[in-house]
Amino acid sequence: MKTQKPVVLYISNYAGFLGANRSLYQLILELKKEEQITPIVLLPCAGLLSDKLDAIGVKVITHGFYFSVVQASGFKERIKGVCRSLWNFTHIFKIFFKIRKYNINIIHTNTSVVDIGVYLSIMMKVKHVWHIREFAQQHYHFKYSLGEKIARLMYAKGADRIIVISEALRLYYSKFVEPSNIIKIYNGLNIEDYAFNDVKQTEVLEIALVGLLHPSKHQDIVINAISILVHQYNISCIHLHIFGNSSSVAYFSDLKNIVTSNSLENYVTFHGYVDNMVDVLSHMHVGVLASEFEAFGRVTIEYMLSKMIAVVSDSGANTELVVNGVTGYVFTLNDTQGLSRIIYHILDNPNERSKIISTAYNYAVENFSSSINAKKIFELYSTLLIN
């Protein structure tokens, strides 16, 4: 007799196709390919993720809901957060009536900044997995809508298991969540996507900076490091490629002003959001991640699999992924001079560069494949359903 596949409802806080949703999409692809689950995805609106899910035959349900955080402190923002939480709570019943016919077994919330999965799991009497992929307060400077005490209580009591994507996150959440209720599972990437030709042109050192343009990502530090290389080291054979949409017009304007005020127009290019980064990275030599409180750094693994040198700040989970001088290079957060010295060192030591690229690629293949990620998460589902 064929065993019925568990039905898993995934909840994401947005419909775009950035890091967290790319990881979610790859997880669903792997589990669907092995016919291990029936996935359903709840989104607040339609977007690129829903388009991609539709294309592979995954049921998508859209219903508007708010984050459980706000972007600033102060009385007005607090009131806004409370109002949004109340709005969410009333709409949970509408969502419940939309999804109850699907006989859901597990609810899997794909972010720390949405709590509707807690309420839905209680109403449906099913298991709740809370997949925490970010330092919401430290990295994005979010404030919890109902206050930090209630948020911590939700994390502690509102999930049957919490998945974190790094040791840095595990250590942080263990302060207020029972450690045995937290499991660390690194993000996974499809290794086969990165099977391309090793030969790259070497006349210019092509440097990639990938991610949302946001103050916590510190794109300004990287641009200033390029300025030092160009104007102090007299290096002309480098080019910085910045990929990603901006979180604010003001920050994007600040970045462009740094470029123009330092006469870097021939050395820095803003490309905006690019969907197929695999092909783009195949032509790059160095990838930088300058973020503070990075929860994992999916792009770091993308750099390694693309046979690039990963250069990361020493904040968050970055040093879990990169061993300085072995699988990449690490610089002190916000140290522009230190970053410029590392890039100069990379330029000046091609033999060392080749060795690090090979070591990092093998490390990424062995530890961060999407098949490993999916296997561990399915094992967690199975354990929860048995218990």
UniProtKB/TrEMBL annotation:
GO molecular function: glycosyltransferase activity
Xref: SUPFAM superfamilies: UDP-Glycosyltransferase/glycogen phosphorylase (SSF53756)
Sorted UniProt keywords: Transferase
All copies of domain Glycosyl transferase family, residue ranges: 198-362
Every Glycosyltransferase subfamily 4-like N-terminal domain range: 19-192
Keyword Transferase: yes
Source superkingdom: Bacteria
Pfam family, one: Glyco_transf_4
The protein's name in its UniProt record: Glycosyl transferases group 1 family protein
Organism: Bacteroides fragilis str. 3783N1-6
Lineage of producing organism: Bacteria, Pseudomonadati, Bacteroidota, Bacteroidia, Bacteroidales
